[in-house]
Design goal:
The chain is of the alpha/beta class. 35% of the residues lie in helices and 13% in strands. It has ten helices and eight strands. The strands form two sheets. The chain has a six-stranded parallel beta sheet with strand order 3-2-1-6-7-8, with helices on both faces. Strands 4-5 form a two-stranded antiparallel ribbon. The longest helix is centred in the first third of the chain and has 16 residues.
Amino acid sequence: MPVDLVADIRAARRIVVLTGAGMSAESGIATFRDALTGLWSRFDPQTLATREGFKRDPALVWGWYEARRRGVLNATPNAGHLALRDLAAMDGVADLAIVTQNVDNLHERAGSQQVIHLHGSLFAPRCLACAHAYAYAETDGAGQTSPGEPDRPVQPPRCTHCGGPIRPGVVWFGEELPTREWAQAVDRVREADLLLVVGTSGQVYPAASLPAIVEQNGRPVWIIDPDEGLAKGTREFWNSTAAAGLPALVAACARKQH
């Protein structure tokens, strides 16, 4: 456990956590490319994650995203997700925002209140034609959308507003990030006393540009990841996974309070 990391958290009132695929990996959520199994293994993910692909074969694309959504519903938040919830509630932390590149809802299901989805969400579909939000009709007792049918092509539902096809609520290749969420993320990192980067390689832009904003303000950036290759450069690095490292970090910070 890096002593300096504990000290930086204890000194920070406004914390931002940037999370990526590694954050959810320990919940069994496959990465974008790993998710191609069974029927979907015959397709290049870039053909399934574009507007053109959806227009060409909406049932195929909708079915694949439904398969991914059901995979999330069958998963549970891991100890890392829960630790971020606990860190937000810690004495001395006035504000903790999570800026995530993940399209799952595990941060929210863990109890985190401020989650900004840069790449959209599997749980926020909308109309391709008019962008009207679509709400899943089926829910379980906890308000979660139900697992639905087995993996197969499925015709997307129609918009109740204009009748257009409902598209997945994720950012496809060739699309801009959602304007509001990106502005929120930039505002948060500009105000941050500390940025934790968890489970992301930092190779996907524009999200990868956020740490530089924090550094320009003279605030610390810590990378928490099991990939030693990310230790290059001037940023602080801790070799740990999210599920193992974050609970230990929160516990260490809590002990420092007494």
